[in-house]
Write a structure and sequence with these properties.
single chain; 12 helices; 63% helix; globular
C-alpha cells in the first residue's frame, strides 16, 4: 500500500529548522535537508558515473546513495560555514562535488600505497559518536522510497550517460562543477561561485570555456 504524500514544509518552517540545526539540533538538521535529498541524489548519480569514467571510483563503489551519505556527514559539522547568500540546496550540491573529489583522492592514495602499515590505514575518527546512525537516517525504508521523493528524470538513462561522457572527456573538474550548477541545476552564477568558493571572474571564464568546449556557443548571462 502506497503511503499518503507528505505535506511540504513551508519556507518559514525550513528556516526555523535550519536555525535550530545551527544550535545543535540534529533532528532539525534532518528536517531542513530532507526536501533536498532528491536533487542531491540525482547529482550524486551524475558524479559517480563521472568518477567511474575517470577511473577514480570502481563501479558501484561508492554508490550514489553512499555519496549522499558522505555529503550529509560533512554537512553537519560544516553547517556554520554555509554562506548566507547560498541556498541550502545549492550548498549541499557544492559539497557533493567536494566529497567526491576527496573520496577520489583517498582512493588514489590507497592505490599508490598498497603496502602501507595497518596503523596508517586506520580511517580517521568519526565526526561524532553516532556517525553511522546519522549516516543511515536518510536511507529509504519500507515506508519511504526514493521514487516518492525524486521527480521523474527529464532525460532517459542513455541520454544522461551520453551527457556524462561528454562532460567527462571535455571539461576539467572545476569547469564541470560550475557548468552543472549553472546549467543543470539552474543556479545563478554569483550563488554558484559563493557555494564553490571560486572568485566570480574565474567562474565566468570557466563557464564560458565549458560552453565553448561543449559546443553551446555564445555567452549566457547567468549572474
Amino acid at each position: 500500500m502506497r503511503t499518503p504524500a507528505r505535506s511540504t514544509p513551508s519556507d518559514a518552517e525550513l528556516n526555523d529548522a535550519w536555525n535550530a540545526a545551527l544550535r545543535g539540533d540534529r533532528e532539525a538538521f534532518r528536517a531542513a535537508v530532507t526536501p533536498h535529498l532528491g536533487e542531491l541524489l540525482r547529482a550524486a548519480r551524475h558524479e559517480v558515473r563521472y568518477r567511474v569514467a575517470l577511473g577514480d571510483f570502481e563501479p558501484n563503489d561508492p554508490t550514489a546513495e553512499e555519496l549522499v551519505g558522505e555529503v550529509l556527514i560533512r554537512a553537519w559539522p560544516e553547517r556554520h560555514n554555509r554562506p548566507p547568500s547560498v541556498r541550502l540546496s545549492v550548498w549541499l550540491l557544492a559539497l557533493s562535488y567536494l566529497a567526491a573529489r576527496e573520496l577520489a583522492r583517498r582512493e588514489a592514495r590507497l592505490r599508490r600505497t598498497p603496502t602501507e602499515s595497518l596503523e596508517d590505514s586506520v580511517p580517521p575518527e568519526p565526526i561524532y559518536d553516532d556517525d553511522e546512525e546519522f549516516w543511515e537516517w536518510y536511507q529509504p525504508d519500507e515506508m519511504t522510497r526514493w521514487e516518492d521523493a525524486v521527480e521523474a528524470p527529464t532525460m532517459t538513462p542513455e541520454e544522461e550517460a551520453e551527457t556524462d561522457e561528454e562532460l567527462t572527456h571535455t571539461l576539467d573538474p572545476r569547469a564541470r562543477a560550475v557548468f552543472l550548477l549553472c546549467e543543470l541545476h539552474r543556479v545563478p552564477l554569483k550563488e554558484a561561485t559563493a557555494a564553490l568558493n571560486i572568485p566570480l571572474e574565474k567562474a565566468v571564464r570557466l563557464l564560458e570555456q565549458a560552453r565553448r568546449d561543449l559546443g553551446l556557443g555564445g555567452e549566457k548571462n547567468l549572474i
